[in-house]
Amino acid sequence: MLVPLPFKPDIILGQSLEAARLTLYKCFLLQTGGALPSGLTRSKIDVQVVLFGAYFNKPEDIKFDKVEIRFTHLNEWAGVSGFDIKSHELTTTLTYKLPTKVSTVVDDLRVSLDFSEEEKFDFPNNASIEQHTFIRLETPQNLSFDRIDALLYHLQNFISLAFDEVTWPERITGYSEEFATVFQGKTIHEPIRIVFASILGKLSNPRPPSMLFGFRDIRERFDVVMRNWFAKSDMLEPIFLGYFAPLRFPEMYLEQKFLGYAQVIEAYHRRVLDGVGIPKEDYARILPKIIKCVPPEHHEWFSEKLAYNEPSQRSRLKELTAKFPWMDFGDKGFIEKVVVTRNYLTHYDKNLKDRAASRDELQKLALKLELLIKMVLLLELGFEQQQIETMIKRTNAYAAVFQF
Asked: How do residues 285-343 score in pLDDT, each as one tens digit?
């Protein structure tokens, strides 16, 4: 008996109840059945992405000239206002001028921190102007959906690092010449809203973040910071995965978080510092001599075990913590506890159980590793040691470890 293949259309076109054009992208049929009074069949479909305002017939047609992303609390992070208020006796004068955008170019991509205003007038009693801050991405080659998805991921990571907590885009809007009209001699681009199902329901934090660093901290070198972040994104990919996952999934077990941070340290040391156990030339010279000393029937096993010239976890931690002499991690006691606990949680060797961290100790070990990862990321962005020290010492994690 042949099992029918699942119904997974890339594209479904339709209309909203308000008659707006909809493109449903990356769909999967979950359930079908149950006739409506009209005689139509009801279906339940999982949709990953909804594009409001346009029809796209094929996935490759989903591309934009520019995309604008508004993150929650981006106004507070930018700290830039176009308002000027003056009061004198019974007169109050409010003046507003759009702040000047800040831009840089990374390869073919222009990244801008930009501003817009929204005016609401209800005379004679109310008048308001609301400023919005957003990040604009532009490229002359058009932005494919896959590239937008990847850029959004890296931007969200950057803003989450800056905020010192996870953040989500509250509005994503794409613009394309394909959906532009000319009115009274002026070209008007139809805004196409992009909604990711995975983001819905996660914009519930009304409290402004504490912030590790704000726009004011990078304004004079916005171009350097942005270039560093995007240029190093591939190299730092495993670091992003291990560091930002606990922020996105706070329900993660403490043991999982600790092991994830330990893996991040290992990945960073290997990828960025090119960390090896002994110099590569020496290793290439002595490895054949070691294999010759092993019985032939064990050559394959030993070759696999010795294929990687890896330094110990102790060496990695010692080298990384030494980069920040102003931070008292606890010297050898901290490093030893991390190594033993990591080995115990990985292999569950009963001989290590008594030396591994207790739950209270594990919480502080995880926080210290989290701080270490933050510091190396700030270092990769181009911050100086004094700036990193100031930022780290005002975080909640630092307070939890060193002040209580």
From this structure: 665 666 667 677 766 666 665 555 567 888 889 889 999 999 988 766 899 999 999 99
> Which distant-in-sequence residues (6+ apart) come within 8 Å of 388 by Cβ?
324, 375, 378, 379
Q: Which run of H or E residues covers position 181?
A: strand 180-183
Q: Which domain holds residue 397?
A: 237-275+311-402
Average pLDDT of the residues of the chain: 85
H/E stretch holding 93: strand 91-96
Q: Which residue, 34, 57, 54, is CA-closest to 44?
A: 34
> Of the residues 198, 231, 264, which one is the last residue of a structural domain?
231
Query: Per the structure block, which two tokens stand in for 205?
Result: 């934090």
User: Which residues have C-beta within 8 Å of that of residue 12, sequence separation ≥ 6?
Assistant: 23, 24, 27, 45, 47
Which structure tokens are listed for 280?
């590569």
